[in-house]
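Curious: explain these tokens?
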Amino acid sequence: MVNEALQRVPNNDGNKNIDQVNQIRESLAMMGNNSTAFSLPQPHLQRTKLCDMKDGELDPLYVKKREQLKELVASIIRPKLVQGKLLNGQEFVAFLEQILDALNKGEIPSTGSLVEVFNKGILERCVKLYSESMAKLSLPLPELSLLDNHERSRKRAMKTFDEQHFGRTHAKKSLMQLEEEIEKAYKNVVLVNEYRSAKLCEALYTRCEDKMDQLQVLRLPSMAKFNAGFLQCNQSFEQECVGPSKANYEQRMVKMLGKSRSLFIKEYNQRLFNWLVAFSLVMVVVGRFIIKFFLIEMAAWVLFIFLETYTRMFWSSESLYYNPVWHVIVATWETIVYSPILDLDRWAIPIVFVAAILIIYWRCYGKRKHGSRWLLPLYSNHKGVSNRPRSD
């Protein structure tokens, strides 16, 4: 009877509902190989009052068949024995409720829970494998490079999980959890990369800013030295600053360098002019009182008069700085002050100190020992002394 009821019904018209019922029949047939069918007649015509009726009011055939069903069920099943005690219906229901509560709370291991526990250890090892791989990176890194390393480490962890995991349905849950853990770890790495990138670029920016401030206050203004420091600072920033903060600090760097360069150029010509004026006055004093070399004093006076009178009378400050003569002076100054061999701004004080010692030595001891043998005109120290031979 059961086998007949579970047989497929022909569906020549292709009705979807019949197809669904046939699928249900096939599923039931696969699940219930050992099944027994038992039919009961209708207890009473008034179905809505069945719960209030007693056995005497029901159809006698129904009552007879019901008793036969009880005997059949009793012959098939066996009473549940728990701790040496047979359970009745109510006790068995209470026992089932306890089992369901324990299963829901996870106190009783099931197939799914065992698979989850087994896969949990594998999941933790895969997450650890990913974390160790990312920890070996030398941060900060560019964003694309960090993403490439993340993808490689993620694929390695996923491959390890695929090779070692157990089960299908529960493995999917563990796989989703593994992806969540990897994404969480990757976000932490991204935050660390951003922090270290900002810290590194900030240090480089501050170093370049200090360097530009130092170049603004050179003892001897030199455009060549400023350009060399400017280029070195820019190159070091481009090479060493990496990571997501580089773009932001590049914009700040361009503004800062441009501002420093404009300020230096603005003050460069005026500072150089002042230095030349001071230099001419110093050489006047040196030629007049120290070396006592007439030509040095005259050249210094000519330079001083040219800078202070001629340029102010015939040239404005703007036209002076664009004049070819001024360009020659600037080129000569740059050659003397800064070169790959000698940085006069750095060694000016030691050179002046050594020169002062040599001059003092020459003034105190050189003239006494060797006398004065200048080939060029010097100031005479014997004014009013007659050159006539002394008579007795």
About this structure: DSSP finds 13 helices and two strands in the chain.
